[in-house]
Amino acid sequence: MHGLPTWEAALVEYPHRFRPYLQKFKGLLGEKEFMAGYLTWIDFGIADFFQAANLLFPELFAEFPTLIAYQIRVWNLPELSAYFSSERFHERPINNYSAVWK
Fold this sequence. Notes:
Elements: H1 6-29, H2 41-56, H3 58-61, H4 65-75, H5 78-84
Helix pairs in contact: 2-4
């Protein structure tokens, strides 16, 4: 990426570099409901990461609908669903309350 600052070049290259990893996640998930075949703590971290990455690069996840379905499945667990619809929950995509977009 001639002429772009390093961070801008990385942003342009990210979807291309990340695609093989999504392919691996797709293979790991296969036909299972959760990554290990049953719900574990790792499903929450992966689902959170997929949500953030999909927010930034939705065109990348268009190729992996099973991964988005997985992320939605985790977020729709009754306990999480109840929390997301409660007054305690405040939408803060990508980061926490201290994050700012510039």
